Amino acid sequence: MRVIWLQSAGCGGCTMSLLCAENPDVFDTLAAAGIEMVWHPALSVETGGEVRRLLQAATEGHSPVDVLCVEGAIARGPRGTGRYHMLSGTGVPMLDWARRLAARARHVVAVGTCAAYGGVTTAGGNPSDAVGLQYEGSHRGGALEADFIAKGGLPVVNVAGCPTHPGWVLETLLLLASGRMGAGDLDALGRPRFYADHLVHHGCPKNEFYEYKASARQLSDIGCMMEHLGCVGTQAVGDCNIRPWNGEGSCTRAGYPCIACTAPEFEEPRHSFTETPKVAGIPVGLPSDMPKAWFMALASLSKAATPPRIARNAVADRIEVPPTLRKPKA
Amino acid sequence: MTELLVGPFNRVEGDLEIRLTLAEGQVAAAQVNSPLFRGFEAMLLGKDPRDALTLTPRICGICSISQSIAAARALGAAWGVAPSPQGQRVAALIHAVENLCDHITHFNLFFMPDFARPVYAGRSWHGRAVQRFTAMEGGAQRAAVSARAQILHIVGLLAGKWPHTLAVQPGGVTKAPTERDRLRILVSLRAFRRYLEEVVLGARVEDFAALADVPALMCWDRGDAGLFLEIAADLNLAGLGPSQGRYLSFGAYPLEEGPAWAGGLWQGGAAPFDAGRIREDLSHAWMLGAAAHPAQGETRPDEEMRDAAYSWCKAPRYDGQVFEVGALPRQVVAGHPLARVLAALPGGGGVLGRVAGRLLEMALTQLLLEDLAQAIDPRERFMLQAEPTREGEGAGLVEAARGALGHWLRIERGRIANYQIIAPTTWNFSPRDAEGTPGAVEAALVGAPVGPGEDTPIAVQHIVRSFDPCMVCTVH
Question: Record-annotated residues binding Fe cation (chain B) (predicted)?
Answer without folding.
Answer: 63, 473
